[in-house]
Amino acid sequence: MPNPTAAMLVIGDEILSGRTRDTNTNHLAQALTARGIRLQEARVVADDQGAIVAAVNALRGAYDHVFTSGGIGPTHDDITADAVAAAFGAPIDVRADARAILEAHYQRTGLELNEARLRMARVPDGATLIDNPVSSAPGFTLGNVHVMAGVPAIFEAMVASVLPTLTGGDPLLSQMIDVKRGEGEIAQPLKELAQQYPDLSFGSYPYQRNGAHGTQLVVRGTDAAQIDAAVVALSRLVSQS
Amino acid sequence: MPNPTAAMLVIGDEILSGRTRDTNTNHLAQALTARGIRLQEARVVADDQGAIVAAVNALRGAYDHVFTSGGIGPTHDDITADAVAAAFGAPIDVRADARAILEAHYQRTGLELNEARLRMARVPDGATLIDNPVSSAPGFTLGNVHVMAGVPAIFEAMVASVLPTLTGGDPLLSQMIDVKRGEGEIAQPLKELAQQYPDLSFGSYPYQRNGAHGTQLVVRGTDAAQIDAAVVALSRLVSQS
Questions:
Q1: Is the ipTM of this complex over 0.90?
Q2: What is the CATH number of the domain that holds B9?
Q3: Domain MoaB/Mog: where (chains A, B) (predicted)?
Q4: Residues B184 and B150 in one domain
Q5: Are residues A190 and A153 in the same domain?
Q6: Per-residue pLDDT of chain A (241 residues; tens, 9 = 90+)
Q7: Which of A44, A136, B85, B150 supports an S-S bond with B92, CB 3.0-4.6 Å?
Q8: CB spacing of B46 vs A23 below 8 angstroms
């Protein structure tokens, strides 16, 4: 069975202005790889309804799963829930189940559930809530789109609660060899080996450390025995060439 | 004059597998903001010709500039130059000017300019070379697409040589206020102020530090006096509400 596919959609002006560095994509990428789901694309768009709707519709049609991060807080620039509803043509309003979660949270903390905070209970019809163990305001899954918070601690907790509910594939395995040579010298044997093992992918990542050139060679795939064999062949080739 | 727009396209399986964390987008975002060019979208795609061609064509049609990072080294998975040429329908081959740069570099370093390394001189017809002061192999600009290396030190050097050649806009300015309150309490005054200043953008970024909630409020725009006025009004509003 082929591995399921996924895309990440990061939403937020602060990423595009350079103010904030996105760390959620890397976290999701690692979690999906471990679960055997292939992250095939990531996008960052601004807090703009048209841009979010277009990206959600392009990605949910192309991949098995879409994960979004950002734009589900209480302020005027938090428009992700409404934009995702619009992308699906689904009605959206404050929903009783989400409202009950917020009421319990603000009662516990002694703060007021004001109109702005109540916006965090806006959930499209037909969506399933995603638990937020950090600050209560839930995310949601609508169709194949998982809508999650941008704050990394909350995003990561939501990923942890969503991933076990998804059908994974064979784990995506990898092995790495570190070669103390420039990649230009090992490109030819690497290419030949890649042709010999069409089910594996071979990556080559040059680096420079203390003035010396080196290359990390990474072999990826789902068949552990095949990866082992390729790594043995690769080690032999790069020591000869 | 409106600010020019841009998109970033990161190319590489290693970003999508989670092995490598992309830092080039954040670097470019900051450099463009300082130059008055609005980064409006970023994408990450795999080392896959079809995916690269589709993304290049979508982005170059939608924005004034496209910056790519990754996939221009000597190995079989470095297919960005050929994919960009295909996106434009431009012929591509080893080009004399790029070859001369590599020949001088490898003569200097005493290494062989083998067939794999010569692939780094593949440049589409009509493209202008981008200088690589770190490891010589050039990037290139074709139309409104700037093709650069993935290794951060080289990417950053190429950005530094390309940006001064582009027409910038009014610098994108921002000011930040740190408020020791949750964003749910200041969402209403923030929304009202955003309506009052339609040319500015107001961002709200909650954080938690040592158990205390706080919010960073960011006002962005190109008119320094307007930003000053909005920040004064904002400070007054959040201390009252």
A1: yes
A2: 3.40.980.10
A3: 7-169
A4: no
A5: no
A6: 689 999 999 999 999 999 999 999 999 999 999 999 999 999 999 999 999 999 999 999 999 999 999 999 999 999 999 999 999 999 999 999 999 999 999 999 999 999 999 999 999 999 999 999 998 999 999 999 999 999 999 999 999 999 999 998 988 899 999 999 888 989 998 999 999 999 999 999 988 888 788 899 999 999 999 999 999 999 998 886 5
A7: B85
A8: no
Measured CA distances, A140 to A98, A227, B111 (Å): 10, 38, 56
Q: How far is B91 from chain A (nearest CA, A)?
A: 23
Do the chains contact at A184 and B18, CB–CB below 8 Å? no
Closest by CA to B28, choosing from B156, B194, B148, B115, is B156
Domain limit, last residue, from B100, B132, B165: B165
B226 plus B180 within the same structural domain: yes
Residue of chain B nearest A14, judged by CA positions: B203
Do B183 and A74 make contact, defined as CB atoms within 8 angstroms?
yes
Last residue of a domain, one of A165, A188, A210: A165
> Which CATH number belongs to the domain containing residue B188 in this structure?
3.30.70.600
Question: Which positions in chain B touch A40 (Cβ < 8 Å)?
Answer: 16, 45-46, 51
Q: Cβ(B121)–Cβ(B98) under 8 Å?
A: yes
Look at residues A24, A114, A105, A102 and name the one whose alpha carbon lies nearest to residue A70. A24
| Closest Cβ opposite residue A18 in set B26, B117, B151 | B26
Count of structural domains, chain A: 2
Task: Quote the Cα angle for B218-B224-B229, to 5°.
Answer: 70
> Are A156 and A220 members of one domain?
no
Q: Which residue of A has its CA nearest to B204?
A: A75
Instruction: Out of B16, B74, B119, name the one closest to residue A40 (CB).
Output: B16
Pairs across A and B, CB distance < 8 A: 187
A135–chain B nearest CA distance, Å: 10
Facing B17 at nearest CB: one of A29, A44, A206: A29
Whether A114 sits inside 8 A of B77 (CB atoms) is: no
Residue-range definition of the domain harbouring residue A190: 173-240
Q: Are residues B13 and B65 in the same domain?
A: yes
Minimal CA separation from A120 to chain B, in Å: 10
Question: Quick check: B33 and A18 CB within 8 A?
Answer: yes
Inspect the interface and report whether the beta carbons of B29 and A13 lie closer than 8 Å.
no
Contact A46, A13 (CB under 8 A): yes
Q: Name the 3-class secondary structure at A142.
A: strand
